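Morning!

As promised:
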Amino acid sequence: LLTGNAAAAWGARLAHVDYVPAFPITPQTEIIETLAGWTERGEMDARLVMLESEHSMLTAAAAAAATGVRVFTATSSQGLLYAMEMVYAVPGWRAPFVLVNVSRALASPITLEPDHNDVLAARDSGFLQLHCATCQEVVDAILLAYRLAEHPRVRLPAIVNLDGFYLSFTREPVQVPDPAAVRAFLPPFDAGKLEFRAGRPVSQAVAVIGGSAYSYFRYQAHLACLEALTVYDEVAEDFARHFGRRLPAVDRYRLDDAEVAFLMIGAFSTKAREAVDALRAEGIAAGLARPRLLRPYPVEALRSALLGRRAVAVIDQNLSAGKGGVLAAELASALYGCAGAPVIASYVGGLGGREIAPEEFHAIALEAIAAGRVGRAPAPRLLYTEAELREVRKLQAIALAEPRNEGATP
Amino acid sequence: MNESQPVTLFRAMKDLPSAHLLAGGTAMCAGCCGLQTLHEVYDILGAKTVFVNAAGCMTLLANYPYTPFRGSWLYTAMASAPAGAQGVRDALDLRIRKHGLPREEDLTAVVLTGDGSAYGMGLSSTSAAIERGLDFVYLCYDNEGYGNTGQQSSAATPHGARTATSGRGNPGFKKDLFAIWAAHRPVYAATAIASEPVDLARKVEKASRLKGPRLILALAPCPTGWDYDAKDTVEIGHLAVKTGIWPLREYENGRIAHTRVPHPRVPVAEYLRRQGRFRHLFEPATDEAAIAAIQAEVDAYWNAVGG
């Protein structure tokens, strides 16, 4: 039994990372504490160094990768946002490394439990992005992410995402991959053309003047990221050969004859999976599509999974203020204009770790099917119950009833 | 000076390298003392270096596909160049220890930063790098303002100087970055100026022989930002030292020493009147009180250190 955080630490250990720049933040901290213990006791031949911020941590991570070593680092939430300047800067260095993000909802209000607005803020950066639903997938995805990120046709950093609390602190049975199999699957780090050494002076991350040179390098990173779609399938196939576990870019569950499909990412998708079984038991043909790979965006895999369904209910554990669910909008762009495109029903839920109840999945499926049958998308919904509203009203009553500071007369 | 130090190679101007390592044709302004500082430092540190650059005037030194560096360079960001140096240093150590990189392939990590980053946004990452004992050289060209964006006030801008954001003179007082470094007990810290090249060369030479956090903080007169003719850069640098407004200092083994004690000191007005950024102290009428206050600051410093 391993927590998601311990599984992440095992991923780094099995990948034989050289360097771990670190900074603590809930709910990620256990990862770096575990790695610190292993490096201190000599169980892992790596250097872990505490930086003073995530911005510096990411700078050190990318600088070390650009110098020619294998790097692992981890953060969460506000930490990822604090590092955001470098999140956007370093993919352009084309120096691969792996960053684990343990998702936690963003301020304000400040909170601890998960949703995906943190990692989606990095969506357009050039980082590859893999999302995990189980603790087993965390260790597997990290190994796979190194192979993918370091591939000569890719050479981009990768984020492996897991949900805070639901995965980070939850113990699940995890099969720790055999070190010998990992060695066979993941060769030692190859710096490629990028390194610093006296005999090969080089200037890295230099400025360009003018939009043409700028566009060229931006397009290059984009095309490499798109190329990672093909490479992902090759690497996932190889992973299955070595470890017997399949990690397709889009996980399909009971989809083939489904009338309605849920689309979700991360740990909450396991709730959707249970809902699918419950709906099937009632005779409702439900299924689940779960993108594991979010960047590059697996357009073809999603089309092949979802075209021909009557409706897709996208449950976004994120909220783009003034727009709605991010995944719903992305899916619409992938399916629009395709023959057999399903109606897309958009739901936002699970913000800040809010539970999504089985009854809600049930109601969502029925609403989506009905919408599919008339061929018109329902209005987007923000999941919230009357009982929840009553609870918040009680909190507000307490907040407003607090006596004013009577000592301070205006 | 420390008697036990190794013999210096630099006793006089004739001992200085005669050819520059850094190529010409960069985008820096005419009369840029920051660039002159970099020349003088680079000539001594040599090409077995990787310059980790913080956003500033030097950002455009390497401009695709050109670079003036014979050695290596990495552009990072304004706030985190010392963290970049940390990553490079640690990765080189790991490659030598674990992956068979020959020792002669090793490089010295050098942070290259202006005062905007060094005195402000980059101070947190700098302080942390010193605290971690990072083996690096930290070179700050201090032109006393955000020069690259047109000389707005920074934490290095002296009191009373006019900038693009303080038309009536900067109300703040220049931070003592050297003292902030010394408070961290680094292996070495020094102030310098390119117009005193032998003094600068000896300090860089000394820094290059040590391991750990090492500061070279060089005042960098800036024709465009300070508003004077480009040909006067060296002269203004001389006056900064002769007036005592820029003390040439060294921190080593817990002690601060002065490598030059100006005596007698030239009145600060001689330094101020040469620069457009202080013109409002002389025109339309001389602001005796303001000039006297600046003089009093300088006098107080030298009285306190026994100059």
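The mean pLDDT of chain B is 96.

Hope this helps with the figure draft.
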